[in-house]
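Bench log, entry 3. Co-assembly request; chain sequences pasted below exactly as received.
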Amino acid sequence: MRVVLRNPRRELDMPAPRTVEQLLQNLDVVPESVLVIRNETLATRDERLTDDDVVEIRPVVSGGAV
Amino acid sequence: MKCRRCREPAVIELRRHNAAFCGDCFVHHTREQVRKAIHEFAMIQPGERVLVAVSGGKDSLGLWHLLRELGYDADGLYVGLGIGDYSDESGRYARDFATKIGGKLIEVDLPADYGFDVPDGARVAKRAPCSACGLSKRHIFNETAIAHGYDVLATGHNLDDEAAVLFGNVLRWETSYLGRQHPVLPAAPGFARKVKPLVRLGERELAAYCVLTNIDYIIEECPMAVGNKHLRYKEALNTIEEQSPGAKATFFLRFVERAQERFADEAAEERDDLRPCAQCGAPTPGDKRADAADPRTAQRGSQPICAFCRLQSRATRIPLRVAAHEDGP
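Structure output for the full assembly:
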């Protein structure tokens, strides 16, 4: 499975964990702070992953000046 | 996971609402949250002209899209801040989006129109970059909204932004800031009405809305914001939210409902004390400490200089003009 990370953009190849939730746990990512986009479609936490997937973990936390 | 409304497969889960939605129902949910916020806080009246401050990011572009979808007469305002490639790129996203929706985009450029950029402003004023940036944006947003005759200035502050600001204000018990922290700041002499129609939506919802409605936005974070206090507060609140879904919404929305009013008098008193800036005419409390330290400022007596004009003067090394705006802009 290919995982695309942002800020800065980089890619990782890894064996697919069972679900999106497990992927986020393995990467120590707080689910509330990201969107997961699996093969260009938004994915929920319970979605199953396969080794053929491309999964983008897109941060949603932004902002400096308010 | 199934959509709560139509039982089709869900694409996003919102634990705070104990719900999941398919793409179409999520877009409906998002619009309804904005409609509800506008109605609940009487933000925009029918027929009013709205100026949306857009940065090229998900919140502001999403807001512009949502307001137009809801039928509002909304134009965009992009302020170039001179933050290197980041500003170039964010400006491209704002312009491309305006072209895509056929919207009017007003552009103001801090370096070209005011003679300095955010990195220089922060350096000479010994301010944090986000502080110089926020000060410049607030000034230019307000000035542009008034100059172009808009009824309302709308910004893309979302629930996460407001919860993080509230968190910071409570940590320091900034009571006058607490009195001003409301989804609507009414118009006053020299001030356009300011509204935050996204206060019922988290930033994860805004990002999902942009993905689902094909809004291209700048994903990279501003290089000057890395590690700032506001982002650390958001991180802390997201950790709490993970354990207690709905904590951020309860924290902010109940503050507005039950506590903000208790601090409003102090904020109102400060607003009553504002006088027109001797340089630009914008309402300002001036800077009493600066007046004491700088004889040139002190000579102006009752005519204060606003923080933006002081910043501009320091950054451009152009002395302040002595001008009087007795009646404001």
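Chain B touches chain A at residues 1, 10-13, 20, 23, 57-59, 129-131, 133-134, 137, 157, 160-161, 164-165, 202-204, 206-208, 211-212, 219-222, 224-225, 228, 230-231, 234-235, 238-239, 241-242 (CB under 8 Å). The CA atoms of residues 217 and 315 of chain B lie 30 Å apart.
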